[in-house]
Here is the input.
Amino acid sequence: MAGFLVVQTDFGLQDGAVNAMYGVAYQVEPDLTITNLTHEIEPYNIHDASYRLFQSTMYWPAGTVFVSVVDPGVGTERRSVVAKLSGGQYIITPDNGTLTYLAAYTGIEAVRQIDETTQRLPGSSESHTFHGRDVYMFNGARLASGKVSFEELGSELEVKDLVRFPLVPPKQAEDKITGSIDILDIRFGSLWTNIPLEFFKKWGVAYGDRFLVRIYENEVLRYEDRVIFGRSFAQVGEKESVLYINSLLNVGLGINLGSFADTYKIGTGTSWKIIIKKERVA
Amino acid sequence: MAGFLVVQTDFGLQDGAVNAMYGVAYQVEPDLTITNLTHEIEPYNIHDASYRLFQSTMYWPAGTVFVSVVDPGVGTERRSVVAKLSGGQYIITPDNGTLTYLAAYTGIEAVRQIDETTQRLPGSSESHTFHGRDVYMFNGARLASGKVSFEELGSELEVKDLVRFPLVPPKQAEDKITGSIDILDIRFGSLWTNIPLEFFKKWGVAYGDRFLVRIYENEVLRYEDRVIFGRSFAQVGEKESVLYINSLLNVGLGINLGSFADTYKIGTGTSWKIIIKKERVA
Amino acid sequence: MAGFLVVQTDFGLQDGAVNAMYGVAYQVEPDLTITNLTHEIEPYNIHDASYRLFQSTMYWPAGTVFVSVVDPGVGTERRSVVAKLSGGQYIITPDNGTLTYLAAYTGIEAVRQIDETTQRLPGSSESHTFHGRDVYMFNGARLASGKVSFEELGSELEVKDLVRFPLVPPKQAEDKITGSIDILDIRFGSLWTNIPLEFFKKWGVAYGDRFLVRIYENEVLRYEDRVIFGRSFAQVGEKESVLYINSLLNVGLGINLGSFADTYKIGTGTSWKIIIKKERVA
Here is the structure.
């Protein structure tokens, strides 16, 4: 084991692109341990790429290198960067917003710009559409295996100068919590909000408490109902809704043995808002 | 190489869940060899999870640990268990029927209950919906790497007390074999039955023999035709049906360069019955 | 690290087939590094299997063994072969056309026929439908780990006697280039042609040059427009078409942030022809 390299793209796994990336990395260092985050990010969806990194990087050892390639601007002047997280993991990615969630919630210690013209796979200078293979994976393998240091990879940038998309912070009032619906637990159709467990603790919420939940898309009401807070899905009846604490310790909203997103046609992103209200006992 | 860890879930690979599981395992032991069985089990489909383990565990070395997480009851009182197969492989799974096929066909030597409150990822006690990461994968990595023994993982259970779903055994009469359609060879649409090669040997069947095949769904006839027994698909004409011996040495039923399941709308499970009749030469 | 083994099939990853192959390989040699090319080749699509090998093999170290199993003729008299590429990588595959692109563009040094009856997983002689596991992966693991040599795997064949499907070579005239549309960059819907960068160099093409592009399906015109040549997608406006040099240094045709194949209903294969014409400045 000569280092961990974890790869995420929007390339899918139907063709040879990801495999060529693996080959390039093993040519750099045969003893690397390489694995996939996901390659099924929707094409060009920088938001989801950012979230998936936030969801997984913290579980990996310091020194692990993540290569994330969702790169609609490949071949333009957008920067290529390497970021060092507060936990000691690294991310190599185009600087196009992919680091937004990590900067906001995980903590980025330092960031450097990679020179795409000098730091690239030898012989790849005529290819301008596959930096995932020629620049990101090549440098990821060098960094993960210790063949190059973080400092040697490029010139220092200010963390505050990274490209970011807007995030709406959650808010807590005396009897109302407001948050956004960041993403889906895709396979199961549950909503993952940005409301932290701490808000529920501050309210002293207990399993079995019931709340009034409203979901808005751009100020239009899309869902309204009373929902119980449970330890997990299976603590409500089949097809019943439940508020729960998800695996990132944020509030989730799902249906036991069903899909909340499909049932109520709920989407994700900054245009989708959730409000959770304490109910007065009359 | 410090041990083999094989992972199966119904999580899909579109998000960061499986990757977080990998990270947790490598934190336990960086030199593990981790690989996927499948993550595309239909959500909550315990039957298929059970079959896929039966299909693959026997090909792995003794000591390999399989972690299988199809877990509609996560967060409830359902047990978490570790089973030792007769071949020396281990399975860590919720005790919800996932071990049914292995108990029936492969052989389970011993089983222990894992204490979810003490045997879990440090710091994960507030998360109740992702035992795959916090309990199953964490303990799988410890067992695969030898950091904990089978005996240390929990208290002994009786194999006979494991939760199982019903299986219908195949039957052979003088001129008739009855079986169930367990599962599909998904990509190719062939039916896999529970009728063993031994039944055909007892009848002295030879390639080229022809049988009357009937398929019933809950006693309703869904398919009836004469079908030839061949060594493989390509031994009949394009789009012709063929009985064959599949890779688990059971009888399969397919169409050469076509999908039997799609063509004749055949499903799987205990409600689907297949009858194979010897034909009298008049 | 005891050798690289890379696997491609049309089996998909929904069941236990690929995992059983991995288990067989690790039983041969636990320290192998095994990874996937793709398992999502369309069932029986030998053309695409051939192309995906061409797309990725060159990026792997000498000695890497690729096992490719797209095998509509399993169980028939079709040969099983092992080919040695000019770069020192090996391919184990049924001899059904899968080696066509490698023979034409990469270079095959030598090829041998594997004896399926003696060179197979011990105990697998009654299974005739899963040579991927019993013959190809088993021998792939032995070759990758050095337990058997290329020469020991079977008897020599002539490279010219390999089964191949027809390829149409690209042609360059003074003001016209003709090529075929080999395959899609699936996720993004771009067309990959067989026209090499060298043709554009000979013409002295520069970024920003505009060409008349026509696409024919069996002599029927399916697309006609003027298209700019750019360094990458992002150098044209959103939803605009662009000619570019792809990651294999051939000419590609795509739409920035869109799918060319979907938009214009363009397919791939020898029946699809592309003509690129230099435009006269009037």
Notes: Chain A has two domains: 4-161, 171-278. Chain A touches chain C at residues 10-17, 19-20, 22-24, 26-27, 30-31, 34, 43-44, 72-76, 126-130, 133 (CB under 8 Å).
